[in-house]
Amino acid sequence: MPRTSCAQPRSPLRSRAPRPFEAVFDEAAFGADLDAIAQTHRGDPSALRMAVVHRAKQALADGRRQTEAWLREDGQGRACAARLCDMEDALIRMLYERVGAAIYGSDHHSTSEHMAVVATGGYGRGLLAPGSDIDLLFLLPYKQTAWGESIAESILYTLWDIGQKVGHATRSIDECIRQAKADITIRTAVLEARFVCGDRTLFDDLIARFDREVVSGTASEYVTAKLAERDERHRRVGASRYLVEPNVKDGKGGLRDLHTLFWIAKYVYRVREPAGLLQQGVFSKAEYSTFRRAEDFLWSVRCHLHFLTGRAEERLSFDVQREMAQRLGYTEHPGQRDVERFMKHYFLTAKDVGDLTRIVCSQLEENEAKSLPVLNRFVQRLIPRRRKSLGDAGDFIVDHGRITITDDEVFERDPVNLIRLFWLADHQDLAFHPDPMRLITRQLKLVNDELRSNDEANRLFRDILVSKNDPETVLRRMDEVGLLGRFVPEFGRIVALMQFSMYHHYTVDEHLIRCIGVLSTIERGTDPSLGLANELMAGIQNRDLLYIALFLHDIAKGRPDDHSILGARVARRFCPRLGLTPAETDTVAWLVEHHLTMSTIAQSRDLSDRKTIETFAGVVQSLERLKMLTVLTTADIRAVGPGVWNSWKAQLLRTLYYETEPVLTGGFSEVNRSERVAAAQRQFRNAMAEWSAADIDAYLARHYPPYWLKVDLPHKLAHARFVHASEAASRLPATRFDLAGRAGVTEVTVLAVDHPRLLSVIAGACAAGGANIVDAQIYTTTDGLALDTIAISREFPDDADETRRIGRVCDAIEKALSGDVPVSEAMVQRGAPKTRQRAFDVPPEVTLNNAWSNRFTVIEVTGLDRPGLLHDLTATLSRLNLNIASAHIATFGEKVVDVFYVTDLTGALITSAQRQAAIKRALVSVLAPPAEERARRARTEAG
């Protein structure tokens, strides 16, 4: 199967010489040991049991160590899982034979005294991960007997004593058939059943009756149920296969998807092994090879993950990804770390799994069209096909609302049809038939420089990219079949490229495609949270440039140099292909180069400082570019992942836009600053109907103008009611919290008398209570109070648990501000990074700049976030005799970017080079990881 990207990392696993399959469990020796144990402890069942358990534990531990050693040597994940399964089979056979002999001492039993021990679930597939459960079926000819109960209990109790997780059922053949008819899960368990030991005839009878009485005529029912089950699983663990912390087992493109694919094929085609799909013509040789390669890679990852963590961990979380990459043999390349190359390979494999699923579904649908209704999920059941020709050349047809091809030579006759298929689908609002999608993956060789330079192909692609219909879906389908990365080679380099960062939720290609979807939403104006962008989009003169710039803004990631500058160069080469003029190309390149500028300034600069606005205006230079950059920045942040875009960021961008607009228009503004303040106050007045006019007037006077511009209305109302209630109760300092304001965080608002160390005390109290600050909005009232809203990482998904935790944090803040409890002693225990954050390495960086403000020295601090960092930074600034005029706290996953506007004690800028150097040294020492953390990282890298 052709790959999407020429830059695909070659798996180190493939370069290792495969070793012949060897069992890790000497069944004969183990059996002899059990016989010797039985002789030694004859007449003492308790001692016998303990001795058997001890010997079995030792055998399993030795076998696991050998299995892990071989896995690290040859990298064969499927062989590792098979060895673990063989070891379990041998253990259960030994127990069954010894238990049977111990109970009866003879093989001559009555008709009812027969049993088959059957493996089900993952164990039934003949593959076990190190932490997998053992699922057993004790199969009986009739009802349970004392003999059968004794055998089953003895085996189960021994396995449990060994420490294994065992799921089990004891059923007759009739019960299995009856329950399989009624329950899809049990039906799948029987479908996967594998004989381990006991009476083989019983097992063969079960399979024969299952095929005859359950499977026959029910393929459509089973397939529909399993696909619905898969969709629900995807919804539960994450609908995208490009989540940067994927679930290897249950995630989209993971092992469970391969299992579902095989269950369906096994049920419909009655094949026992995946090779049967090749014989049935479902897979080509290349596709079957892809299936085995994907299966082996995913099993390697899963087995390594279980061995590494010592438990049945299925999620590739950030804190294990780097060590997993090293275990699997990945190395660093220019612009890409070892962990990023490993994860790129993982996501390309997940994509392969999606391709294979689509192929099987296509074949099943073809079977339905010719004979039985197999997959009514994809076609309208038993309705005659309605076809109509599409396109001038008649190369495409519409089949039940889906676009497909007339024959297999369509793309070879005219390679432009590769792009035209997607253009027609978008233009006619059609879904995609799986047949052309499968054919495209086999004919990507047709995408060459001649096609890339074809004017018609580029015109069609531009129409897709800037479509007013559903460009996100069409581009994603192009990406899934590998066409997008072939037609735009620069895009091919970032396909499945993962950024090793807690801030980014998706791979780079998925992020870019989601950006296009967000821009479509902005243009339709259907998401009120995107406020200002919705308003500006309608007035942008050339909307096409925004779509093209968003498609390109991260396209140069994964290279050693600044991706914004490199991306601008890509834009200057690529835009003429799409027919853009030199001026339009220049605009797109500028947007790509500066796509981070507005976000950075809005979140980490004082927007009430005139120099900030003038500097930004100097970069933007025109009102049209300001509008386009505002919309692009909104879409970029919104597409990073769930919960990243919020009302705070929306309000900051709005403020920066309206502060910059008058500078660009020579003083003229559609809505000038004083009018915007007045409008915000009127909005507040209208919403506070329960207050008297005098109370509202008094409250309006307590806030400086920037407050009314930077804070959104819901927070203004909450602040006002909080201040009023606190003062009425004579509570100062006071706190309140909100669990529902933003996804993934809890907002805490603090009202207290303002003083220079206030932020430091609040941050210290939060850290002492185990709370990590990820964002902060800090305001001072005209009567000397501080009204600070801080965002704290949410600890518990359950509201009741989080309420109890945050209540303790608020109590700690109030006590610290009251002077009742000093925070310095508690802070000693709270300095280490959290587990997830310890996986990252963010070089400490401190910048002092006197050009960013006329009145203040601006200190920008960048480093690895950790609980208590903000307290340590602000406390250090205080010890350096610096006054903090304003602070701007922003966290991007594991990376913190804190900006402080400071002066010395006399109110002057910090101009002395020696003083600046001393400040830098002090702050860098705060950012640097403690000695034990540096030692741990060194050990990890060495290992």
TrEMBL record:
Family matches, as InterPro entries: ACT-like_dom_sf, ACT_dom, HD/PDEase_dom, HD_domain, NT_sf, PII_UdlTrfase/GS_AdlTrfase, Polymerase_NTP_transf_dom, UTase/UR
Record key words, sorted: Hydrolase, Magnesium, Multifunctional enzyme, Nucleotidyltransferase, Repeat, Transferase
Domain HD: 508-629
ACT domain segment(s): 747-826, 858-934
GO molecular function: [protein-PII] uridylyltransferase activity; phosphoric diester hydrolase activity
Domain notes: Has four distinct domains: an N-terminal nucleotidyltransferase (NT) domain responsible for UTase activity, a central HD domain that encodes UR activity, and two C-terminal ACT domains that seem to have a role in glutamine sensing.
NCBIfam families: PRK05092.1 (NF003467), UTase_glnD (TIGR01693)
Protein name (Swiss-Prot/TrEMBL): Bifunctional uridylyltransferase/uridylyl-removing enzyme
Organism: Blastochloris viridis (Rhodopseudomonas viridis)
Gene that encodes the chain: glnD
